[in-house]
Design a protein that fits this description.
Blueprint lengths: L17 H23 L4 H18 L12 H25 L15 H4 L3 H36 L14 H13 L4 H18 L2 H22 L6
Helix pairs in contact: 1-2, 1-5, 2-5, 3-7, 3-8, 5-6, 5-8, 6-7, 7-8
C-alpha cells in the first residue's frame, strides 16, 4: 500500500512531551467550551463566537513551534476535495431537508443565527460575519486538522507517544474513532460523516495535513459564500 500513496511519509523528530499534547488539545478545548456556552446561553452567542475565534487563533500561534511541521504536498488535491466537500455538504443536506425536514440533529448548537436580524446596524452584522467567515476559513481548518487528523489520529495509532506514528498512517481504529468524534461536534451529522470520510481518505492518500487543511478551508469558505448568497443561516 505504501507504494500507492506518498512513498516518503513524514515522521516527526523526538518524543512528545505533555506540552506538545497541550498544544494540540488546548485550542480545540477552548473552542468547544465557548461553543457550548454560546449554544446554551443565546445572550452570550456573539461574544462567545468572537472569543473562541480569537482565542483559538492566539493559542495556535503561541504554540506553533510544538506542532509537527506541516507539509503542503497535494495542495491541488486539497482544493478539489474541498470543492467536492461543499457540493456534498449542501447537496446532501438539502436533499435530507426535502424528504425529512425534522431529521434529528446533534444537540447543543442552538438556533440558527441571522446577524441582520440580531444587530441594530448592518455594519455590526457585517463585522460579525467577517469574523465568523475568517474564523471558519482560516482558524478552524488549522485547529481541527491539527487536532483530529494529526494529534488524535496518531494518538490512537500510537497511544504511548503519538509522534511514533506517521502522519496519515493507516489505522482502522483511528479512522473510525476520529470520524465519529468529528461528526459528533457537527449538528448536520449525516453530511459531516460523509465529509469526514472524504478528508480521512485524503489524509491516507496524501499523508499531508496541509492538503487536509486546504480542503477544510475551501469547504468552509465556500459554505460561508453559500450562506451569504442564500440567507440559509442554519448552515452556520
Amino acid at each position: 500500500m505504501n507504494q500507492i500513496i506518498n512513498p516518503a511519509p513524514q515522521r516527526a523528530e523526538g518524543p512528545a512531551s505533555w506540552l506538545d499534547e497541550v498544544a494540540y488539545v488546548a485550542p480545540m478545548a477552548v473552542f468547544l467550551a465557548l461553543t457550548w456556552a454560546g449554544g446554551h446561553w443565546p445572550s452570550l452567542y456573539v461574544h462567545s463566537y468572537v472569543a473562541k475565534t480569537f482565542a483559538a487563533a492566539a493559542l495556535l500561534l503561541l504554540m506553533r513551534r510544538r506542532y509537527t511541521r506541516i507539509t503542503w504536498d497535494y495542495w491541488w488535491l486539497g482544493i478539489i476535495v474541498g470543492v467536492a466537500g461543499i457540493v456534498q455538504w449542501v447537496g446532501v443536506e438539502e436533499a435530507l431537508l426535502a424528504i425529512w425536514p425534522n431529521y434529528p440533529r446533534i444537540p447543543g448548537a442552538g438556533a440558527p443565527f441571522d446577524p441582520f436580524a440580531s444587530f441594530s446596524s448592518s455594519a455590526a452584522a457585517w463585522a460579525f460575519i467577517i469574523i465568523r467567515w475568517a474564523g471558519a476559513a482560516l482558524v478552524v481548518p488549522f485547529m481541527e486538522e491539527l487536532f483530529w487528523r494529526d494529534f488524535l489520529w496518531r494518538t490512537i495509532a500510537s497511544p504511548n507517544d503519538f509522534r511514533l506514528a506517521r502522519i496519515g498512517e493507516w489505522d482502522a481504529r483511528a479512522f473510525i474513532v476520529v470520524l465519529l468524534l468529528f461528526t459528533s461536534v457537527h449538528p448536520q451529522w449525516i453530511t459531516a460523516i460523509i465529509w469526514g470520510a472524504m478528508i480521512g481518505a485524503l489524509l491516507l492518500y496524501t499523508r499531508s495535513i496541509g492538503a487536509c487543511i486546504i480542503a477544510h478551508a475551501v469547504t468552509n469558505f465556500l459554505l460561508g459564500a453559500f450562506v451569504q448568497a442564500t440567507g440559509k443561516w442554519y448552515y452556520w
